[in-house]
Specification:
The complex is a heterodimer of chains A (300) and B (460). By secondary structure, chain A is mainly α. Chain A has helices spanning 2-38, 57-63, 66-98, 104-111, 113-116, 119-129, 136-143, 157-185, 189-197, 202-213, 215-230, 234-239, 251-261, 265-298. In chain A, 75% of the residues lie in helices and 0% in strands. The chains are: A mainly alpha (300), B alpha/beta (460). The interface between A and B is medium-sized, with 28 and 40 residues.
């Protein structure tokens, strides 16, 4: 018996080993290498300094780098604002799509269109929309009398955020709506009937039944969207390039800048490690929350 | 559009030499799209026919300069032997030379005197020539001959001319359009204003002087064009070369700062509303400065790890020979780097821009700072210039901050300017031999040092 189960275990180990090797190659090895790089001063353009080991020197430099803290702030701002908007709008869309109406299937597909467009293309599209001369945004605002002369959106720090956040909300709200819709469909309609009998209005049904039972889906959305938003790169790279100055530069763009424009591999690796640690921490927090929420969700 | 071109050009051409072919193979890599690519391929094919004993390959690399730079640096770090001949942007030569990635050309006794001095200066590191100028680009002031009767003789006159033309009934909405987005083009614009005010980014001994009072005046002047005299629309702060060309071409601007490539496009009446109604001049100066144009262009250099440097040199000589430069000028509008060609009637026929209009511009061209860490310094400066121009900080604060950061980067790079002054080069010399002693390092014995741009003196 014992020998038998030992050989089973050995077989099992052999069977999972290819998967483990792949994970080690594509996830752990690059991560380890990045960590190692981050402990060195390695600048491709200054080969004469070699690659001296500097310990935590790159991390100390990060702490004293105002551009890093600025980028972190921009990333946090972008994440909070865009994820909050996406959650609210996504919930509204999901509730609407959950009702029975003619052409519901078509609407559900149509809503996904922005999500299906490649980010770079979407970003270029929004750049045109917010062009100061020919853009639709200014034309609309001027026709409705909100402004009397065109806004040069990408020249002011505050206004440059508008197209960035709108583009992200436009693009990812459908994804949020679909995830929430799946959650809505798991809610037993008998609960609403009972609530209606007890005299609960629509708002009370939403806050007492829908949102509590949707908690697992909401947490899932928050995990996906927060981690995605925190690593935002392509959208801002195309839309503003991080400008004006560096006032819309997110942390991932700064890391890219250090790594691939300035070719400071050591410092860029250190920034990447910091991004990894932050997203990893966020994921841990959410998974804890999701575990609790998931348990509550399966209760009858 | 740019991205598509980029990806298209990223597709590598793979050679298909026969297995039994033992002829030496040399590879050229550079921009290979459009008329430039066609011309280079044609010229390289002719070179290959003249030398049946060798195989020449073209390895296209991204047309976007930043992307090509990144790719080249990665290859050279890995000590890859091909491409043998590389097309470098004018601002990379010192970086590649200091890193030991390209060969000194001194052993081939290049004829410096045939080329424009500013272009030679940009390719010289530690008094050693590392690349041959292939073509030059210079910043030009395009002005409307239907709105003005003469080119401005000073920056103040430029402003008053622009204001007057804009005020006229159905005058153009913009006075002056230039490249103000946060990218290398902003530095070229800035360098021209700096020279116009008698300032520079770095002086001859390599000190960062970009926050001098005159430099602050130059940046303040640029900002005032947007916020005070309003001859430049705030949109220029998001514009690259093409956006300014569209504005000028549609008749929406009195003046435009741009490179020579725009001339033939603007002269094409099927797409340009200003065809026949414009001319070019050199950017005017303010009091205490001199008319200055930024030097752009491409250089040809030999990879240090090339197995066939002699053949590579032959190819460079061929591509930069007068005949090939004339052919290129006719096909692409790129300016030859050989001074003598400007007396050649064939060049006048080949180029759209009247030679007399462009010649003074080339003669007053200045290189951007010749330093191995130029791109990093430029990146820091771009951010601060853009902050000042978008009103996030004052010109003085922006330039003080830029100077502080640039000095810090220079200090950390091991290229400290004091080493230059004393003539010793301790920090690098102690590291290189141990680390990279096995490689051919042409620049090693001299050691890197700083050369500032000289504010135009050398161009005359």
């Amino acid at each position: 018996m014992i020998a038998r189960s030992n050989s089973d275990a050995r077989l099992a180990r052999w069977l999972v080993s290819p998967a483990l090797v792949v994970i080690a190659l594509v996830a752990i090895f690059p991560l380890g290498w990045t960590l190692w790089e981050s402990l060195h001063r390695h600048d491709l353009r200054l080969p004469w300094i070699g690659q001296p080991f500097v310990g935590l020197g790159n991390y100390v430099r990060i702490i004293h780098d105002p551009r890093f803290w600025g980028a972190l702030g921009h990333t946090a701002l972008f994440t909070v604002v865009s994820v909050a908007l996406e959650l609210v709008l996504g919930l509204i869309f999901a509730l609407a799509m959950n009702r029975a109406f003619r052409g519901r299937g078509l609407v559900r597909v149509a809503v996904l269109v922005p999500w299906a467009i490649p980010t770079v293309v979407a970003a270029l599209l929004w750049r045109f929309l917010f062009d100061s001369q020919a853009g639709i945004a200014n034309a609309l605002l001027m026709q409705t009398g909100v402004i009397d002369k065109p806004i040069v959106w990408f020249v002011h720090a505050a206004t440059a955020w508008v197209p960035v956040i709108l583009a992200d909300v436009w693009k990812t709200t459908p994804f949020v709506a679909l995830l929430l819709l799946a959650g809505l469909q798991n809610i037993d309609s008998a609960l609403y009937e009972a609530a209606a009998v007890d005299g609960a209005g629509a708002w009370r049904q939403l806050t007492r039944i829908t949102i509590p039972l949707l908690k697992p889906a909401i947490l899932l959305v928050l995990i996906f969207r927060t981690l995605d938003a925190f690593r935002v790169f392509d959208l801002i790279y195309v839309l503003t390039g991080g400008g004006p100055g560096t006032s819309t530069e997110p942390i991932a763009l700064y890391a890219f800048n250090a790594l691939l424009q300035n070719l400071q591999f050591g410092y860029g690796a250190a920034i990447s490690v910091v991004i990894f640690l932050i997203t990893f921490g966020l994921a841990l927090i959410y998974i804890k929350g999701l575990g609790a929420g998931g348990a509550a969700g399966v209760e009858p | 559009m740019l991205l598509i071109a980029l990806f298209a050009s990223l597709v590598f051409a793979t050679g298909c030499g026969g297995e039994t072919d033992t002829r030496p193979v040399i590879t050229y890599s550079g921009s290979a799209v459009g008329s430039q690519g066609e011309t280079v391929r044609r010229q390289i094919e002719r070179f290959a026919k003249m030398h049946p004993e060798i195989v020449v390959r073209v390895q296209p690399s991204p047309d976007d300069a930043t992307q090509r730079h990144q790719l080249f640096v990665q290859w050279l770090n890995a000590h890859v032997g091909d491409p043998d001949v590389m097309e470098l942007d004018v601002i990379w030569t010192s970086e590649f030379a200091a890193a030991g990635w390209i060969r000194s050309l001194e052993q081939y006794s290049p004829t410096r005197g045939d080329f424009f001095p500013a272009a030679i200066e940009a390719n010289t590191w530690n008094d050693t020539l590392y690349a041959i100028p292939w073509y030059v680009g210079v910043g030009l002031l395009y002005w409307r001959t239907d709105l003005l009767d003469h080119a401005p003789r000073s920056l103040d006159e430029l402003v008053s001319q622009a204001e007057r033309a804009m005020r006229a009934s159905d005058g153009p909405p913009y006075g002056f359009v230039w490249q103000g987005a946060r990218y290398e083009g902003l530095i070229t614009s800035f360098v021209e204003y700096l020279g116009a005010f008698g300032a520079e980014i770095m002086n001859d001994s390599g000190d960062v002087v970009v926050d001098s009072p005159r430099a602050i005046s130059a940046l303040t002047f640029m900002r005032d064009e947007i916020t005070r005299s309003r001859i430049a629309p705030p949109e220029v702060l998001t514009w690259h070369e093409e956006e300014t060309r569209f504005a000028f071409q549609n008749g929406n601007a009195v003046f435009m700062r741009n490179w020579p490539y725009a001339y033939s496009l603007l002269s094409d009446s099927s797409q340009s509303r200003v065809a026949g109604h414009f001319a070019v001049a050199t950017m005017p100066a303010a009091e205490g400065g001199h008319p200055t144009t930024a030097l752009g262009g491409a250089e040809l250099a030999i990879n240090t790890y090339s197995e066939h440097p002699e053949i590579a040199w032959q190819l460079i000589q061929y591509l930069t020979a007068p005949e090939q430069q004339l052919e290129r000028a006719a096909a692409t509008g790129d300016y030859p780097t050989r001074r003598a060609l400007y007396d050649d009637p064939r060049l006048a026929k080949a180029l759209a821009v009247p030679l007399d209009q462009v010649r003074t511009a080339i003669e007053s061209a200045v290189p951007r700072p010749v330093t191995p860490i130029y791109t990093e310094l430029s990146g820091l400066l771009q951010v601060q210039l853009h902050r000042a121009l978008t009103g996030q900080t004052s010109p003085a604060n922006a330039l003080h901050e830029a100077a502080r950061q640039m000095k810090a980067v220079i200090r950390e790079s091991g290229l400290d300017e004091r080493e230059v002054a004393t003539g010793s080069f301790a920090p690098a010399a102690s590291v290189i031999p141990a680390k990279a002693g096995t490689h051919v390092r042409a620049g090693l014995d001299m050691g890197p040092r700083f050369r500032g741009d000289d504010g135009g003196g050398a161009a005359r």
